[in-house]
Amino acid sequence: MFSTRRSVLLPLLLLLASPALAQTIQNKTSPVQEMAAPGETTEAPKPRAAPAGIVESVPLPRSGSVLVFGGTSGTGLEAVKHLVAAKEQVTVVSRKTAEDPELKALGVTVVNGDAMNPESLKDVFKTTPFRVVISTIGHKKGEPNPDFEGNKNIVDAAKAFGVPRFILVTMIGDGDSEKALPWFVRLFFKEAMINKTLAEGYLRDSGLEYTVIRPGALMNKASSGKAVLESDPMKYSAIARIDLGKLIADCVKDDKTIKKIYTAYDPTRASLFAPIFGD
User: According to the per-residue pLDDT averaged within each range, which of 27-31, 46-50, 101-105, 191-195 is highest?
Assistant: First the structure.
């Protein structure tokens, strides 16, 4: 029994008497650590934050439908066709009826409303969330003139319901483009030029993300495929409604056109013999 106790106690006494010896024994039983080179460390690297400027902010696509005033005929209808072809959800405002066969065939939503009646616009803007409003409305003989008052009402409703974007179609001759028209032509369009210029100014001052498009004479002709938006207010040409409709629709997804006023220009229809009054 004595020999057994001695065999247990003797190593313990040696360890207590010699810490260095204990450390040697521990080193023999512990994993070997790799030595670091000069200027380096053996510690595991700590996670780092991405350097400033590496993560780029990308704007999210805007949601909502496109609301079109004047979309039951003419230029507005051509714009609607291009919007549908671009897979946009479109709602068209009609003063007469929501049962429009051509628009129904295109798969767009038609709602009753009148730009000259602000109360009716409240129901229009409540139908669904909109991200863009397009107005191509114009004066028709024997009816109230919406060139300023109607567009003003639409702008006010867009602001009230939080629609950020507004595309307004007016005419060459407004504002700083007045002298792009011959003086005798200005006499025929004097009232329209005054009212549409007022509408442009009201929209610009509204705080909305506006785009103004000024076409010349409108034609029911085939597309030339050459129409563009020009920033020069003194350019003039006639333009096919189908081409103008595409220019309008293209602005919906082009944020570079925000806060811009353009001339709708077709170089193939800009000769001295280009029509002034349209057809």
Answer: 191-195
- Within 13 Å, how many C-alpha atoms sit on residue 86's CB side? 20
Residue 23 counted as domain residue? no
- Identify each DSSP E strand in the chain by its residue range: 65-69, 90-94, 109-112, 130-135, 165-169, 209-214, 218-219, 228-230, 239-240, 260-265
What's the pTM value of the predicted model, to 2 decimals? Answer: 0.78
Neighbours of 48 (CB within 10 A): 6
CA distances from 148 to 38, 43, 191 (A): 80, 73, 10
pLDDT at 13: 47
User: Does position 44 have pLDDT exceeding 90, yes or no?
Assistant: no
Task: Provide the β-strand partners of residue 208.
Answer: none
219 touches 241 (CB < 8 A): yes
Q: CB count, 10 Å around CB of 167?
A: 25
CA Rg, the chain, in Å? 36
Encode burial over 195-234: b for 16+ CB neighbours within 10 A, e otherwise: bbbbbbebbeeeebebbbbbbbbbbebeebeebebbeebe
* Distances, alpha carbon 160 to alpha carbons 3, 38, 154, 163, in Å: 101, 69, 10, 8
Nearest CA to 258 out of 171, 132, 143 is that of 132
- Residue 176 in any domain: the answer is yes
List the domain range (segments joined by +) for residue 105. 65-269
Query: For residue 195, what is the domain's CATH number?
Result: 3.40.50.720
